[in-house]
Amino acid sequence: MTTNTVARETECLLKNVGVMEFNKQHLRLASYAAEFQQLVDKLSETPPTIEDWRHIDALFGRISRFVAEHFRHEEQLMQEYDYPEYNNQKQMHNSFESKLIDVQSKIRGRDIRFTNDFCKELWEWLFHHINVVDVAYRDFFIEKGLK
Ligand SMILES: [Fe+2]
Ligand SMILES: [Fe+2]
Which CATH number fits domain 3-143: 3.40.190.10, 1.10.10.10, 1.20.120.50, 1.10.1040.50? Predict the structure, then answer.
């Protein structure tokens, strides 16, 4: 299955959170997760080469940067409109970012054992956070006139 196929299938599983910009960012996150999954699947067959580690570094860096960018956008909008669940969101975002820092240090130590657990966690976190936590701001932002 290609990354695009996985990303397209994932698109159907992600809920519409009401704010177009965030829907797009969620899709991009899911496509990164799909790309990461593919890489992990490939690495389960053979030990990573130097080239594979470079690929992991690059992809993980891209994921971390985009996660941070997305979280800051959401938090900014929540603060601007005084979203009542802001603190809860902020806490969840922070703890996920700490998790990413943890994983980053395993990657730096070239410890491949992080991959399977992390992949699973990444999907679970994304689905739960988008479909349960983020979707809860949908009506709030729609009422404020955002699309
Ligand atoms: Fe989000
Ligand atoms: Fe969020």
Answer: 1.20.120.50
